[in-house]
Design a protein that fits this description.
Distance between the termini: 41 Å
Radius of gyration: 23 Å
Order of helices and strands: HEHEHEHEHHHHEHEHHHHHEEHHEEEEE
Structural class: alpha/beta
Shape: globular
Helix content: 40-55%
Number of strands: 13
């Protein structure tokens, strides 16, 4: 239970889960633990690994892990946290994105002990008759208890009928897989609870639910998301991953230690005390970056990334307190970014610095003056001494 609860937001229902664990231990039958991810983008980022790490811990305890790719539910589009209807993906987009999902998830999970499934296996077989039967097991009133639906209904924002099907189909996944425990982010709680209710309707013991916090992206504000440009992909080059981790704020660093690091909580507390007593937080951030990069590459690549980072800033380290600037709208050309962030005094100075190789974004030299920055947060450097943490909105 201590392993299960570390870093989690909520476990429902603790007494039920303890009973499941006790039965599992007595019978030698592992629990069936499910995580579903819709392949809405081709890459997995560190935000996804918060729940994947927990899944791996449960896997190491001997339980059966089911990595469910929501190829069917992706065609509906998850309405969680949305204030408008999410555009559904095409079958071709889903297939393309799903190709890399499991390969990347296997960088966290043990592939030999992971059951990979696609929910089209049972969802396609339901047909119209089965879909109507499934829909009869839930009410509109319960759907409208969902906060995002309620807000949209009150504001007169349209809710398409197919959006009601998403939590039903996700819940039906738990029925099809006979799930004992389902994991998800805090934004998935409603969908996970539907799974419990549907299992009861189908005569199964209801699953327990473990929700994990949503990891903030490099901007420290929005949840990590590729669409927001504040993500760190687990398949990114080691140097790029290292540089992005070093760009996060000192405050956000502790959140990353809690949700991403495999170090003990005692170790993390000791690091906090060391910083309070005067240790440079940058050095602690290096330890975090080395751990994460080594996990998804190797120790040699992590050390090489550190060496490259230090060489890059040897003559002008990133100041601990750099100006933070919000600009927009995205995308924004690098020359305009330099001017509006007050890193240069004119457009001609911006061009000259780019041409002379004096401009870097997240440690990477800018060689193209037509470069545009998408939504996200970047550490922008001009020369050896001028820095700004720029958020493009």
């Amino acid at each position: 239970m201590a392993i299960v609860l570390r870093g989690c937001d909520e476990l429902l229902v603790p007494a039920e889960f303890e009973q499941k664990l006790a039965r599992s231990e007595a019978t030698g039958e592992p629990l069936r633990i499910k995580l579903g991810l819709d392949p809405t983008a081709p890459d997995i980022h560190l935000g996804h690994t918060v729940v994947l790490n927990k899944l791996r811990q449960l896997q190491d305890l001997g339980h059966t892990v089911i990595f469910l790719i929501g190829d069917f539910t992706s065609m509906i589009g998850d309405p969680s946290g949305r204030n408008a209807t999410r555009p559904p993906l095409t079958a071709a987009q889903i297939e393309e994105n799903a190709k890399t999902y499991y390969a990347q998830a296997s960088m966290v999970l043990d592939p030999e002990r992971t059951e990979i499934r696609y929910n089209s296996e049972w969802c396609d077989q339901l047909g119209a008759r089965g879909m109507i039967e499934l829909a009869s097991k839930h009410t509109v009133a319960r759907m409208l208890e969902r906060e995002d639906f309620t807000q949209r209904y009150r504001q007169g924002v349209s809710i398409s009928i197919h959006e009601f099907l998403y939590p039903l189909m996700q819940g039906y996944d738990s029925v099809a897989l006979k799930s004992d425990l389902e994991l998800g982010g805090t934004d998935q709680k409603f969908n996970l609870l539907v799974g419990r209710e549907l299992q009861r309707e189908y005569g199964q013991e209801p699953q327990c639910i473990l929700t994990m916090p949503l990891l903030e992206g490099t901007d420290g504000v929005e949840k990590m998301s590729k669409s927001k440009g504040n993500y760190i992909g687990i398949s990114e080059p080691a140097e790029q991953m290292f540089g992005k981790l070093m760009s996060i704020s000192d405050e956000l660093m502790w959140r990353y230690f809690e949700l991403l690091s495999f170090r003990s909580l005692q170790d993390v507390e000791a690091l906090k005390e060391a910083v309070e007593q005067g240790r440079n937080p940058r050095d602690v951030k290096v330890e975090l970056a080395l751990e994460i990069v080594a996990r998804f590459h190797n120790e040699e690549a992590a050390q090489a990334a550190l060496a490259a980072f230090e060489a890059r800033f040897r003559d002008g380290a990133i100041p601990e307190d750099i100006d933070e600037v919000s600009l927009g709208p995205a995308p924004m050309g690098i020359l305009k970014v330099l001017r509006e962030a007050n890193l240069v005094s004119s457009g001609s100075e911006a061009q000259r610095n780019v041409q002379q190789g004096g401009v870097r974004v997240d440690g990477q030299k800018v060689e193209d003056r037509s470069l545009s920055l998408e939504q996200g947060t970047y550490v922008v450097q001009v020369g050896k001494r001028r820095f700004a943490r720029v958020t493009i909105e």
